[in-house]
Design goal:
Distance between the termini: 80 Å
Radius of gyration: 28 Å
Helix content: under 10%
Number of domains: 2
Shape: elongated
Number of helices: 2
Strand order of the largest sheet: 7-9-12-13-11
Number of strands: 13
Amino acid sequence: MAITKIVDDMRTTTALDAAKMVLGSDARGDTLYYNGTDYARLAKGTNGQVLKMGVNDPAWGADSVDLTADQSWTGSQRATLAVPIWSAPNLTFDLNAGQNFSYTTVANTTINFSNIANGQSGYIIFTNGGNHTVALAATSKADIALPVTISTSGKYILSYISDGTNAYLTNSAIIA
């Protein structure tokens, strides 16, 4: 039975009879797709193949991503330094913007994190440009000495890891 006839039957009935879906050598796992003129059968792929989109039609192929091999990463995948959002007195590290940040204080500030994702971690190159007082927002957790230490002028490396609710921070000494 021609595919066109099946499509016409589908338009005039409310139920589709499986017998009307015969496309030739049907087999379990086959896929039906529209090729621009008619419906066509794509035989199932083999174990390990993935469905890819060609110029116009789907096709089975090898998975071309091998995460065990060295990769050439783009900026966002290399975790290029992102810039936090400054809105006095809050300094917000948006974890959707990146995982590594760099910032130089311009005034007293409170460190905040937004879009806190469970398991996300990274680094912050934090430069206190002038003995600006640094505080932590409620979801920014650290030992009591961290805000005191980084309130002194200098450059620090802060590291953080998040649990989906809070970001936990540690800091280096002043970096020369």
